[in-house]
Design a protein that fits this description.
Blueprint (H helix, E strand, L loop, with lengths): L1 H11 L8 E4 L2 E8 L8 E10 L5 E8 L2 E12 L2 E6 L4 E3 L4 E4 L4 E8 L8 E8 L3 E9 L9 E2 L2 E2 L5
């Protein structure tokens, strides 16, 4: 029975990822990730959650990543039954006490001009720029879809927009 329990744990553990967070001022960036890309891919994505513990709104206005020539904020919209992406104009506002998710199917980070493939298990440095909090250095983990991410941040639900 113990052998079965150990085997079951070994099958589950690779899907679990420890949280990694980056904080500056009242802004906390939780679990920045990207997805593996084919060798010839010119674009990649970035996903993460942002929590604003402050009393004033802040705005994510841009950033950069060492893995790409450009980091842009994009939104996915359904137009005539077809998903289309477009740049987000003016940045993304994070209200006081709110958590926002940059995730697949909504607002997300688009990495343009990849300098090479993004490989599962590797990571790369980036920086997000906020109007009030300024520049925050982060690290994106490259993870395959389906990896289980943390669900809470200091008692606040992650994965839910407030």
């Amino acid at each position: 029975m113990l052998r079965t329990a150990i085997l079951a744990a070994c099958l589950v553990l690779p899907a679990l990822v420890s949280a990694h967070q980056f904080t500056a001022g009242s802004i906390t960036i939780d679990h920045p990730t990207s997805r593996p890309t084919p060798k010839a891919a010119k674009t990649g994505v970035g996903y993460l959650s942002i929590f604003n513990a402050g009393t004033q709104a802040d705005r994510l206005v841009g950033g950069s990543a060492e893995a790409s020539e450009r980091l842009e904020l994009h939104v996915t919209e359904i137009v005539d039954g077809v998903a289309r992406m477009r740049p987000v104009e003016g940045g993304v506002v994070i209200e006081p006490g709110a958590t926002i998710d940059l995730a697949s199917g909504g607002i997300h980070i688009m990495l343009g001009g990849l300098k090479g493939p993004l490989v599962a298990g590797e990571s790369f440095q980036g920086e997000l720029v906020f109007e009030k909090a300024g520049a925050i250095s982060i690290e994106f983990n490259v993870e395959r879809p389906g990896v289980v991410a943390p669900t809470t941040h200091e008692g606040h639900p992650m994965g839910e927009s407030q």
